[in-house]
Write a sequence for this structure.
């Protein structure tokens, strides 16, 4: 062996060069010709980067020569893909950077191919958020994550490869490259075509190009054929089979779709090389066929700690049935990697050398890649090293903070939030709170609070809940979600395992199963002082807990600790150092949420927690800038909100009576209100809201006497002028487009809408009309483009029109603002939201000034279009979204603007009402009232209210259990029975009926609630003999109103109201109740007859009739709602009613004939035909409401009925002159039956029938 | 147990009228006759007789409740004819028809007896 001494580190570079020279010469002297695998190169002094640039790539001759052979990228890839690198060789490249010497050392046994760098292997299912697909804009700059194969190379090697691919045309250091290429020591070079002497392998392609360019495609094919023939056929076969295999792999990539559908990196030179790699797109992902996977990816999740599919483990667990081969095709996946800010690292970041500086490299797996996977972070969060732990928790927290914005919704194949469902994950987070050192605790609190607290949503909800009809807002517990219906929490909750609980209700788990509140209480007591960030985290968590359920009020000391330590009024003036940095406004917010939730909770807070004095103190604190607490302006806002929340429940009236005049005096007299409002529009908005709340107190069901009503008014009437002035100012600002950039639209719109609401309300009290100035400004505003733009958003952000499933980003219990989408994008669009809220208040305001503001200016083209779209839109099959209530509010206000006789009113109101979610019964009532009132005459409105009042006004009567889902602990559990009292004389006691909205979850457009009043009238009438004759007029009108509603609904929405034959029967039976009242005078009137005729027409034309053309609709044995018995028993009753009582009413007769279609049960129909008084059914063809074809399509096969027909004709009960229509029906039916019999087998019976029939004709 | 005494179905109380007429205000030439202490036996008969009258547009009867021994007959006639007349005529016709029936029945029995004797 060569015994010369080796260079040592620190030796002079010149010495190294000398050593090398020495070595080469000595070897050459012994072995003859020799070329070293690597050489030391002297280089010019340049930047480090350039020095790397100058060096050749690390590459073995084998791959180079292959490249030279084929010149075809695909083939190379094919080869390389198949050969699994077992990682035997290591590749070491070292840069002794400061010296300008690069030593490249390759170990030639390595089979490595530069082209591998660019082949994307199939990533596989990764339980921990592997990268799925790329958002539309997020990574638009283009990025490629390194593929799994890359991990076999060191990061330096990768860099070299990248550089090489960029610079493969100018290998500017011939010494280096030639030394590589010419190396003949490779063992694999035997296959290569002897062209290894060529220095620049890719040049072959360049040479071929001009040659090929001169040929036509056919010529190329011919040449190719010739070439193939010269080759060994076995070789061709081999290459082809390889090619086919490769294709399969690429295909499976497509199907599985976990490969990165990254946008093609546009700016990178290496693009040339990756041209042929197929990038699956997003749509591929959706087409993916899960059956192609050897195992259901979801099931892997159940194996904790298994970051990716590992065949051995899965085989051991007995869950994998496929063979190994198929499994291997899956390759490895790509984990999403994040930096410390919680940002996903994309291709560019992964290549950026800055990642070293950022400390994103570590000693775990994939140490060459920057960033951390979530899995790694979770492991690190349990590290014994506290800094590591803290950093990991911080990063996880940041990741979730980003995730809440929806940033990762489309990027990661698995939502980060779904990780909640894993015990391991949650356990790791919760454990962080119990750590010993402060840093870790602080970070753990930060992390957990970031996970729990979607800040955008919170920001949004604060605004949203201040809009009209926003209350009650839903708890975010699963109790208010359908999800839990099947599980029925409350009963089985205790039995749920922790894992199951996590899946259902993430927060519930934390509150009840992890002692989170105890721990928080401990922190709040100040025994383990947390940092500012930690305190904020604690309050954030509590805010979410408060949003989750009111349980925190009952069974925990946390709130009392907060009151005692953080919001006690004494603390304000004492400039207590303990408050320093503590976000007291968050503490206020916790209370405000609870107060807002229901009056019961508000009372509880008022009684048990002494927060009101400090609220007032903060409001009265004239020098709020000097407050020691964090964000004093937020505290003022929150104080306002709490006060408003209390007042809206009618609580703390005494306090407001004594304090409010002082406050108002303070505001008005010292003009600090102007100061306050100029400081922030949010504040003025809350002042308006407060004034409004005071005025509106009369609406609440509390003991407010008449004089109080006026005292409310006297309190606020001084402010009207100021509010009006401000409103004018605000409208002027909005109306001038050039000012647009100078104000914050969100708050301005919101503030203005509050001002308008107050002014609208105040018009009810004062005799003064709204000032001319305001109306003029309003008129001006309505004509501006700003108004046009806002109205155009109506359509753009309509929830009803988009009728999309507003499923949450969150798997378990986060009622997410993404339902507020309005457009479908991820952001809660608060700007649009507030603009639409402004529209609501504008419409509400204009309602009182319609005489002065023409309707045509209000309802511009945009609104018109929106309304038309709404009218023509199909009813969605999705359950109504919670956030649709705000759109419905706009529609409600808009509807109030339309004149009473406008045809739009009914349809729009009905359409909107059908979209109302269960929790908004007040809104629904109002919409439905409009629908009702526009379906009847003005004189009938009180009656109409009376009929439907029992249903609609349920929640407004204090004695009746409330229907709100989220009002109390039994929220979400629909009450099956509700008692309601009727205003009728027949009322002997409360009647228990089915709860009207029982079926709301299915669809509010159930026939049920349209028809129920009709059934009810019938029940009342039949319950007391003589009741009808005494109240005939009233009953008649009630029936008329009910029928009008049914008529209106059917005219517009028959296909939605009647979807099944059961619906059809229900409508039919409900309408027929009017005939069964026992007095023909009810339905004999001309108006009501016309309504009944229209309903019949709607029934005949509805799609169900067409659908069941050859099947029976009426021949059902199932129970029909509202009928004590089956239809088979109901129909004879109807017939006998006809002959006993009806004056042979024609409409009645038509209804009677409806079940006479031939597909119906013969027993049912014979009831009609054997009726004694059938001869008095004198309908003529021209007067019949039912077309003849309806009753005669199909062939009568029942011989009994045929005989009945004949007998009717024989006996003269039905004659052509008297009963034209029936005669036609009978003769056509007989004729059809005879015709069909003559075609088919005719037995004796038919012959006889025919004979008889012919005789008759003669 | 709760059944009304049987006599209630045929004994008129003091002051109780056998027949009551109520004109229908909404429908021209229509009236409701309430006949106390009668049932389907009479109701159906009168109804069928009324329906045979070409001037009767509508005739129907009902017993509002099976335990309530009364029937309501609703009659509507053509313009030149009142429901009362229609009912009277129907009853007269029924009486004569029934007496004819009785007469014939008696005759038949007589014949039979004579034949046997």
């Amino acid at each position: 062996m060569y015994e010369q001494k080796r260079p040592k580190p620190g030796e002079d570079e010149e010495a190294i060069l000398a050593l090398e020279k020495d070595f080469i010469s000595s070897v050459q002297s012994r072995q003859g010709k020799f070329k070293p695998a690597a050489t030391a190169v002297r280089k010019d002094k340049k930047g480090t980067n350039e020095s790397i640039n100058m060096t050749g790539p690390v590459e073995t001759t084998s791959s180079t020569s292959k490249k030279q052979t084929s010149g075809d990228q695909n083939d190379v890839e094919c080869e390389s893909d198949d050969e699994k690198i077992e990682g035997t060789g290591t590749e070491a490249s070292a840069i002794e950077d400061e010296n300008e010497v690069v030593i490249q050392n390759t170990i030639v046994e390595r089979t490595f191919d530069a082209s591998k760098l660019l082949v994307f292997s199939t990533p596989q299912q990764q339980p921990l958020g592997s990268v799925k697909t790329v958002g539309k804009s997020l990574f638009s700059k283009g990025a490629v994550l390194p593929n799994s194969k890359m991990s076999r190379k060191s990061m330096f090697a990768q860099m070299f490869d990248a550089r090489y691919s960029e610079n493969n045309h100018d290998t500017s250091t011939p010494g280096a490259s030639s030394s590589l290429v010419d190396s003949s020591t490779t063992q694999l070079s035997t296959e290569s075509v002897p062209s290894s002497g060529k220095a620049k392998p890719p040049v072959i392609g360049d040479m071929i190009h001009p040659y090929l360019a001169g040929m036509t495609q056919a010529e190329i094919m011919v040449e190719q054929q010739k070439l193939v023939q010269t080759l060994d056929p076995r070789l061709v076969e081999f290459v082809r089979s390889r090619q086919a295999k490769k294709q399969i792999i690429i295909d499976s990539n497509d199907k599985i779709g976990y490969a990165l559908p990254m946008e093609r990196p546009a700016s990178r030179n290496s693009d040339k090389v990756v041209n042929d790699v197929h990038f699956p797109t997003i749509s591929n992902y959706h087409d993916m066929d899960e059956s192609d996977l050897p195992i259901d990816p979801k099931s892997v999740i159940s194996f904790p700690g298994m970051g990716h599919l590992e065949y051995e483990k899965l085989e051991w667990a007995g869950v994998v049935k496929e063979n190994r081969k198929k499994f291997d095709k899956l390759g490895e996946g790509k984990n999403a990697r994040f930096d410390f800010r919680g940002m996903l690292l994309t291709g560019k970041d992964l290549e950026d050398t800055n990642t070293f500086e950022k400390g994103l490299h570590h000693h775990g797996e994939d140490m060459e890649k920057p960033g951390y996977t979530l899995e790694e972070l979770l492991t690190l969060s349990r590290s014994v090293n506290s800094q590591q732990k803290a950093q990991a928790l911080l990063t996880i927290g940041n990741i979730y903070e980003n995730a809440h914005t929806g940033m990762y919704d489309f990027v990661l194949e698995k939502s980060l939030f779904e990780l909640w469902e894993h015990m391991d994950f949650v356990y790791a987070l919760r454990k962080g709170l119990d750590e010993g050192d402060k840093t870790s605790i602080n970070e753990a609190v930060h992390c957990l609070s970031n996970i729990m607290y979607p800040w955008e949503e919170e920001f949004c909800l604060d605004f949203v809940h201040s809009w009209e009809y926003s209350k009650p807002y839903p708890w975010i517990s699963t109790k208010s979600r359908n999800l839990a219906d099947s599980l029925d929490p409350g009963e089985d909750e205790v039995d749920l395992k922790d894992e199951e609980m996590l899946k259902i209700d993430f927060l519930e788990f934390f509150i009840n199963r992890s002692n989170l509140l105890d721990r928080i209480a401990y922190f709040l007591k100040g025994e383990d002082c947390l940092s500012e960030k930690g305190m904020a985290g604690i309050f954030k968590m509590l805010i979410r807990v408060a949003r989750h359920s009111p349980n925190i009020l009952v069974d925990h000391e946390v709130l009392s600790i907060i009151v005692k330590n953080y919001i006690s009024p004494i603390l304000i003036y004492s400039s207590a150092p303990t408050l320093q940095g503590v976000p007291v406004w968050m503490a206020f917010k916790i209370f405000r949420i609870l107060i807002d939730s229901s009056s019961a909770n508000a009372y509880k807070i008022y009684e048990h927690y002494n927060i009101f004095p400090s609220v007032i103190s903060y409001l009265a604190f004239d020098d709020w800038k000097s407050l020691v607490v964090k964000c004093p302006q937020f505290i003022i806002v929150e104080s306002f909100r709490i006060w408003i929340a209390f007042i809206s429940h009618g609580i703390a009236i005494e306090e407001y009576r004594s304090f409010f005049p002082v406050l108002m005096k303070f505001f008005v007299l010292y003009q600090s209100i102007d100061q306050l409002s100029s400081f922030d529009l949010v504040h003025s908005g809350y002042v308006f809201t407060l004034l409004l709340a005071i005025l509106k107190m009369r609406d609440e069901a509390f003991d407010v006497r008449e004089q109080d009503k006026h005292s409310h008014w006297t309190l606020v009437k001084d402010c009207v002028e100021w509010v009006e002035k401000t409103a004018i100012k605000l409208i002027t600002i909005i109306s001038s487009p050039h000012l647009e950039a100078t104000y914050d639209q969100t708050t301005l719109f919101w503030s203005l809408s509050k001002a308008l609401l107050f002014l609208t309300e105040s018009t009810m009290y004062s005799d003064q009309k709204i000032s001319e100035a305001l109306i003029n400004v309003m008129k001006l505003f309505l004509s501006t483009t700003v108004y046009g733009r806002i109205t155009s958003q109506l359509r753009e952000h309509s929830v009803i029109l988009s009728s999309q499933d507003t499923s949450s980003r969150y798997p378990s219990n986060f009622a997410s603002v993404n339902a507020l989408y309005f457009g479908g994008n991820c952001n809660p669009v608060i700007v649009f939201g507030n603009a639409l809220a402004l529209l609501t208040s504008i419409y509400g305001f204009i309602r009182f000034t319609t005489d002065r503001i023409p309707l045509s200016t209000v309802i511009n083209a945009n609104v018109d279009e929106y309304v038309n779209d709404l009218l023509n839109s199909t009813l969605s099959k999705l359950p109504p979204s919670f956030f649709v209530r705000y759109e419905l509010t706009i529609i409600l206000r808009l509807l109030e603007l339309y004149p009473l006789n406008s045809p739009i009113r009914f349809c729009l109101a009905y359409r909107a009402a059908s979209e109302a979610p269960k929790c908004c019964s007040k809104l629904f009532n109002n919409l439905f009232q409009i629908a009702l009132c526009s379906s009847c005459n003005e004189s009938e409105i009180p009656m109409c209210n009376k009929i439907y009042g029992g249903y609609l006004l349920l929640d407004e009567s204090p004695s009746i259990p409330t229907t709100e889902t989220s009002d109390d602990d039994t929220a979400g559990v629909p009450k099956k029975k509700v008692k309601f009292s009727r205003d009728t004389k027949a009322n002997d006691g409360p009647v228990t009926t089915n709860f009207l909205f029982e079926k709301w979850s299915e669809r509010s457009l159930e026939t049920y609630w349209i028809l129920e009043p009709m059934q009810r009238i019938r029940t009342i009438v039949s319950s007391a003999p003589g009741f009808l004759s005494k109240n005939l007029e009233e009953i008649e009108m009630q029936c008329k109103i009910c029928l009008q509603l049914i008529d209106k609904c059917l005219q517009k929405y028959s296909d939605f109201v009647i979807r099944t034959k059961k619906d059809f029967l229900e409508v039919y039976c409900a309408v027929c109740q009017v005939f069964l009242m026992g007095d023909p005078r009810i339905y004999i009137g001309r108006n009501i007859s016309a309504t009944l005729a229209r309903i019949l027409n709607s029934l005949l034309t509805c799609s169900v009739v067409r659908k069941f053309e050859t099947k029976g609709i009426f021949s059902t044995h199932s129970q029909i709602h509202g009928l004590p018995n089956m239809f088979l028993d109901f129909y004879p009753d109807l017939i006998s009613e006809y002959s006993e009582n009806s004056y042979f009413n024609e409409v009645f007769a038509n209804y009677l004939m409806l079940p006479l279609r031939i597909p119906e049960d013969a027993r049912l129909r014979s009831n009609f035909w054997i009726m004694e008084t059938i001869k008095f059914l004198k309908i003529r063809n021209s007067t019949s409401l039912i077309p003849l074809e309806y009753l005669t399509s199909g062939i009568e096969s029942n011989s009994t009925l045929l005989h009945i027909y004949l007998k009717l004709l024989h006996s003269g009960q039905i004659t052509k002159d008297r009963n034209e229509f029936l005669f036609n029906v009978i003769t056509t039916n007989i004729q059809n039956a005879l015709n069909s019999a003559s075609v088919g087998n005719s037995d004796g019976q038919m012959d006889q029938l025919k004979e008889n029939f012919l005789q008759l004709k003669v | 147990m709760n059944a009304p005494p049987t006599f209630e179905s045929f004994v008129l109380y003091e002051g109780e009228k056998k027949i009551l007429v109520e004109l229908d205000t909404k429908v021209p030439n229509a009236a409701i006759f309430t006949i106390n202490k009668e049932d389907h036996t009479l109701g159906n008969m009168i109804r069928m007789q009324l329906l045979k009258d070409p001037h009767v547009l509508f005739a129907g009867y009902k017993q509002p409740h099976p335990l309530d021994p009364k029937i309501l007959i609703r009659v509507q006639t053509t313009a030149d004819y009142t429901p009362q007349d229609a009912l009277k005529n129907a009853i007269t016709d029924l009486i004569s028809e029934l007496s004819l029936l009785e007469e014939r029945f008696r005759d038949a029995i007589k014949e039979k007896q004579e034949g046997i004797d």
Chain A has a mean pLDDT of 67. The longest strand of chain A covers residues 92-96.
